[in-house]
Amino acid sequence: MTVLSSARPESTTSAAPAGTGNAEAMNSVLGKARLIIEAFTAEDDALSLAELVRRTGVAKASVHRLAQELLGWGVLERAGNRYRLGLRLFEIGQRVPRQRILREAALPYMEDLLLATQETVHFAIHDGLEVLYVEKLMVHRGVSKQSRVAGRLPLFCTATGKVILAFSAPALFHEVLRRGLTPLTHRTVTQPGLLRAQLDRIRAESLAVEVEETRLGYTSVAVPVFGDTGALAGALSITAPTFRLNHANHGRFTVALRTAALGVSRALQATG
To answer: How far, in Å, are 33, 48, 169, 248 from residue 78 at the CA level?
Structure first.
């Protein structure tokens, strides 16, 4: 029997130190609290007081005082003489309407897609210049650790991100170019003209294929999901080792993927 999982493996995209370039946040209590919370990355189980001071750039006395208040709120927890993010953040996060509505609409069709393909399934949305993974389902066999729920990856080199770029306003594409196309692998597309041609094809076919641009040995296929107004709501994808997801069997995966995306779109349209 296939086991469904929403496990959250590590992402290769780590947040920059929270204090970097954030001088305005240093001028308010709320801003300093934000720097402390954002000092934690996906790779951190717990951080010491000294590490929080170094990452935030906030004075040690202020970090210590604010950490005590965050402990009382449940946003932070004690882990010996270190700090970790608290369950209160998880509880609050589950109340976010956009995440909850999208996840509830997508999850049944993602489960069907996982059962049909036996490969990792993602649902991602656009946030800034990155994709944000709202949900991930996978089977327990050589799973990819490139992504995680609530994790982020660049728009320009992921299949879900390319879909979002293709169906978004041109200004987003130009903003991505201004930031720079920093490669994740030697196969990442970093030529603006080639990326633009890919996006043109994705718009024409409503299908994006990314081959080892994010992680060597893995290929992803993604399609758009539209909301009740016909606007892009996100992208649904399948990720698998390249030897299992290749030109010979793209068709089978694509049919299942389009069917699931249509179901998610209809569910979102029904919710209004």
So the answer is: 16, 10, 45, 52
Q: Which residues of 160-180 are buried (b: 16+ CB within 10 A; e: fewer)?
A: bbbbbbbbbeeebbeebeeee
The residue with tokens 């750039």 is 57
| Integer Cα distance of 152 and 149 in angstroms | 9
Domains in the chain, ordered, with CATH? Answer: 23-93 (1.10.10.10), 97-271 (3.30.450.40)
Model confidence pTM above 0.70 = yes
CB 196 within 8 A of CB 182: no
241 φ, ψ (degrees, to nearest 5):
-55, 140
pLDDT of residue 2: 33
Quote the CA–CA distance of 234 and 164 in Å, as a whole number. 7
Structure tokens at 244: 């299992």
**What confidence tier does 96 reach under pLDDT thresholds 50, 70, 90?**
confident
Whole-number average pLDDT of the chain: 85
